[in-house]
Specification:
308 residues, mainly alpha, 3-stranded mixed β-sheet, 3 strands, globular
């Protein structure tokens, strides 16, 4: 296989979510309303954390970055999907497809790493409270974010490198509403078994290790909380419960999509819709709704701007 063979394919045709015009209209309205309501909420979370000196703890630093990554992630698929609802022929160029695929994996893996760092932060805060301020210094948090972006870039680069070495010379129809690895690999006009094994191993191993590690860490935290005072215990359990909800929202669809052979299932598009559009915007909102400090700071920020 040679890279020059990929020039045969200049564009991909996206088949979209459904061929029913009525169902397309319903999905368009629902996604647009959700997008216009929840996306500003993510930016409000970022603004609140940045503008309030009282929210300078590492927990809020990571929450602000989670809102930023999720908001950025939502721009990769949703805007183009909304515009494609009005197009009879939904076309994306080959470079555009590769770019979309790269940022999906770059930001998606970044979110996974960030959830791991948030779990580590909660573990130290709850299980090693006397050492928390000495360990979780600002430079440590910035180092975590640097490692996050380097690791995410390396992962996304591997995905793109494997795709670029595939020849495309047959059908150019992607049975989805965006470009992702499973659908693109299936269009290659060569034996893709080795590429599938490499990609599934790369994605699947990373996702499962992060998922199982997160579950184990929160199990240890919740076990440790059995000996805490009632007030502190309730607050810590609430925080951990929120993290666990976000973990399942993010990792459930990812495990379904990326840890199995590249075969088409009827639920693929629905799972992909929630994974790329709905859940990313919900993650920071779910966390904020259960965090009294952020909610109180957000109310003060809104009141200050409304009265000024």
């Amino acid at each position: 296989m040679e890279i020059r063979n990929t020039t045969v394919m200049t564009e991909f045709v996206l088949l979209g979510l459904t061929q029913s015009r009525d169902l397309q209209l319903l999905i368009f309205v629902l996604v647009l309303v959700f997008y216009l309501i929840v996306l500003p909420g993510n930016f409000l979370i970022i603004l609140t954390i940045v503008s309030d000196p009282g929210l300078s703890a590492p927990l809020y630093f990571f929450l602000g970055n989670l809102a930023f990554l999720d908001a950025s992630y939502s721009f990769i698929v949703a805007p183009r999907m909304l515009m494609d609802f009005f197009s009879e022929r939904k076309v994306i160029s080959y470079p555009g497809c590769i770019t979309q695929l790269f940022f999906l994996h770059f930001l998606g893996v970044g979110e996974m790493f960030l959830l791991v760092f948030m779990a580590l932060d909660r573990y130290i805060a709850i299980c090693r409270p006397l050492h928390y301020s000495a360990i979780m210094k600002p430079r440590v948090c910035y180092a975590f974010m640097g490692a996050l972006f380097l690791g995410s870039f390396a992962h996304a680069f591997v995905q793109v490198a494997l795709i670029l070495h595939l020849p495309f010379c047959g059908s150019n129809q992607l049975d989805n509403f965006f470009c992702d690895v499973p659908q693109v690999v299936q269009l290659a006009c060569t034996d893709t078994l080795l590429v599938e094994v490499l990609i599934v191993s790369n994605n699947g191993l990373l996702i499962l290790l992060c998922f199982l590690g997160l579950l184990a860490s929160y199990a240890v935290i919740l076990f440790h909380l059995k000996g805490c005072s009632s007030a502190g215990k309730r607050k810590a359990v609430s925080t951990c419960t929120t993290h666990i909800i976000i973990v399942f929202l993010m990792f459930g669809p990812a495990i379904f999509i990326y840890t199995r052979p590249f075969r088409t299932f009827s639920a693929d598009k629905v799972v992909s819709l929630f994974h790329t559009v709905i859940f990313p915007l919900l993650n920071p909102v779910i966390y904020t709704l259960r965090n009294q400090e952020v909610k109180a700071s957000m109310k003060r920020l809104l009141n200050r701007h409304m009265t000024s």
